[in-house]
From TrEMBL:
GO terms for biological process: folic acid biosynthetic process. Pathway: Cofactor biosynthesis; tetrahydrofolate biosynthesis; 2-amino-4-hydroxy-6-hydroxymethyl-7,8-dihydropteridine diphosphate from 7,8-dihydroneopterin triphosphate: step 3/4. It catalyses: 7,8-dihydroneopterin = 6-hydroxymethyl-7,8-dihydropterin + glycolaldehyde; 7,8-dihydroneopterin = 7,8-dihydromonapterin. This is Dihydroneopterin aldolase. Keywords: Folate biosynthesis, Isomerase, Lyase. Its EC number is 4.1.2.25, 5.1.99.8.
Amino acid sequence: MDIIFIRELRAETLVGIYAWERQVRQTIEIDLEIALPSSRACETDNVEDTIDYSRVVRRVHEELERHQFKLLEALAEHLARCIREEFKAPWVRVSVAKLRMMHGVKQLGVVIERGQRPG
């Protein structure tokens, strides 16, 4: 199984259950692991045979501009669905964290996995 990953993608978005969170954009950090639909790129050395990292990053930013979420769980689910559908990924792991939201806590967040992890 071949997996691409994107680590520490930072983005500004409105997310949260409190009124102030619905008005002030927060920086969140996203980590993605995405199973490739095939391993052809290893042989062809052609970006068209893999998932283009820059397209994934662009789509994440676009989705965060279009949608607002109360829960990080819902945000992660939305990104997982988008990546699986648009990029035909059989499996994805999405980690979404808020940064320094509580005194003494560097990050808090959620990690979800969706799809069948190829073995």
